Amino acid sequence: MSSPSTTPGPASDEEIPAYLQALGIPGLADVHVHFLPEPMLIKVWDFFDRASSEYGREWPIRYRFDEDTRLALIRGMGVTAIPALTYPHKPGMAVWLNEWCAEFARRVPDGIHCATLYPEPGVGEYVARAVAEGARLFKMHVQVGVFAPDDPLLDPAWELLSDARIPVVIHAGSGPVEGPYTGPDRVEAVLRRHPDLTLVIAHLGMPEYDRFADLAERFPNVYLDTTMAATDFTERTAPMPPGYVERLGALADKVVLGSDFPNIPYEYAHQLFGLARLGLGDEWMRKVLWHNGRALLERAGA
């Protein structure tokens, strides 16, 4: 049986518009983009500058520019609705991060109103407030926050987000470094309590690719985002396991584009190039790059 036709992915950022035109899609629906308060972003970049000691390899930030430049670049790549994913690493941060996200959405016309959460007293109340104010995409980072996603403190927030059908991009895989609460087991525990919750598993859940794909197959509103997957950078340290590409093909309606812009050590185009060279076909690419992400955000009202 022949493989589906796949248009070669773009070799550079400048080639992205022509590539999207060749696919016949109006843009990119990237659900995993970071815009952060400036002091926090500088600290994040400083952390990646020390990546050789933290991760055992260099991690040069490709898009280390001011906010206006980064916005112009991501728009030029075809992203039509821009997330501003933030995440707290300790109690007491989520509220002011959510206030910053609301302000970002007010001043950036094509920005998605995002929010975050942390297991702490009052999380249900401030998540409800963020949703009432218009938040339509949430982010959780289990590794950075060093907390359990199945912490009972989070249950009121999970219930509210489940009822509102608002997606949560959750970094719970054990890459690039395993944490005490990373991995699929605690995410599965959350889903057993809230089976209709919309979770977007960041980075395809790497390196536990197959275990997180199991959750996408079992639960109706679990999706996988492609962030950093299929790139040369990732395949050197966390390669996809045998048979996994075929699973991604079968999960065509539950895979969405993610990039980690601007905190990536290669051109944005390489994410698209890596996905295209999986050879799953142009229709799969159209779904992943545009249709699935747009449907997910539109369902939440974004």
Features of the shown structure:
alpha/beta, 7% strand, Amidohydro-rel, globular, six-stranded parallel β-sheet, 302 residues, lyase, ACMSD, carboxy-lyase activity, hydrolase activity, TIM Barrel
Approximately how much helix is present in the residues? 40-55%
Strand neighbour order, sheet with most strands: 1-2-3-4-5-6
The overall strand count is 6
| Residue runs with pLDDT of under 50 for 5 or more positions | none
Name the assembly state.
Answer: single chain
* CATH architectural category: Alpha-Beta Barrel
Based on CA atoms alone, the radius of gyration comes out at: 18 Å
Beta-sheet strand percentage? 5-15%
Distance between the amino and carboxyl termini: 40 Å
Structural class: alpha/beta
Secondary structure elements and their pairing?
Blueprint: H1 16-23, H2 38-49, H3 51-54, H4 67-76, H5 94-107, E1 114-116, H6 123-132, E2 137-141, H7 142-145, H8 155-164, E3 168-171, H9 184-193, E4 199-201, H10 209-218, E5 222-225, H11 232-235, H12 244-250, E6 255-256, H13 268-276, H14 282-299
Parallel strand pairs: 1-2, 2-3, 3-4, 4-5, 5-6
Helix pairs in contact: 6-8
Summary, kept brief:
The chain is an alpha/beta fold.
What does this structure look like?
The chain has 302 residues and is of the alpha/beta class. The protein has a single domain (13-299), classed as TIM Barrel (Alpha-Beta Barrel). 43% of the residues lie in helices and 7% in strands. The chain contains 14 helices and 6 strands. It has a 6-stranded parallel sheet. α6 (123-132) packs parallel to α8 (155-164). The longest helix is centred in the last third of the chain and has 18 residues, at 282-299. It is globular and about 50 Å long. This is Amidohydrolase-related domain-containing protein. InterPro entries: ACMSD, Amidohydro-rel, Metal_Hydrolase. One of its GO terms (molecular function) is carboxy-lyase activity. Residues 30-297 form the Amidohydrolase-related domain.
